[in-house]
Amino acid sequence: MLNFQKKKEIVAEIHNTTKKALSIVLADLRDIKVNEITKLRALSRTIGVKIHVFKNTLTKLGIKNTQFECLKKILIGPMLIGYSIDHPRNAARLFREFSENNVNFKIVGAVFEKKILAAYDINTLADIPTYNEVLQRLIITIKEATLGPLMRILMSIAQNKK
Questions:
Q1: Which pTM value belongs to this model?
Q2: Could you say which of 13, 17, 37, 115 has the lowest number of CB atoms within 10 Å?
Q3: Minimal CA–CA distance to 110: which of 128, 99, 95, 98?
């Protein structure tokens, strides 16, 4: 049993993590083996996702007065909570890939920009491109847009000289 001081520390930890998070994804962790969760935790550390399993009462206290306060509506039963720290998509992508290999792992929902996303909207969140991916796409588009007409002009000049 947790004493009052330990509960206060947990609530503070949840609050601090929540303040740093860009998005949060919830999953039902019933019927998932401990060694599978351990693998998920290890993978999460490498991509900037923090994973917690706390009592819902403590979680509700920890998310109070944050952008994720709307999570209170969907915190029912044993939940695995993934906090995306580096990029909003990381926890959603991690949970989506994990659920593909573990049929009992059910994504319950997520919160991004103060809005609750249903489980079926997780793919939208998971597919958000990173800053570098957007820059790469932009550069390719600019290259194609500027080099395409230039190449056509050069080709027509070369054909006219023949």
A1: 0.77
A2: 115
A3: 95
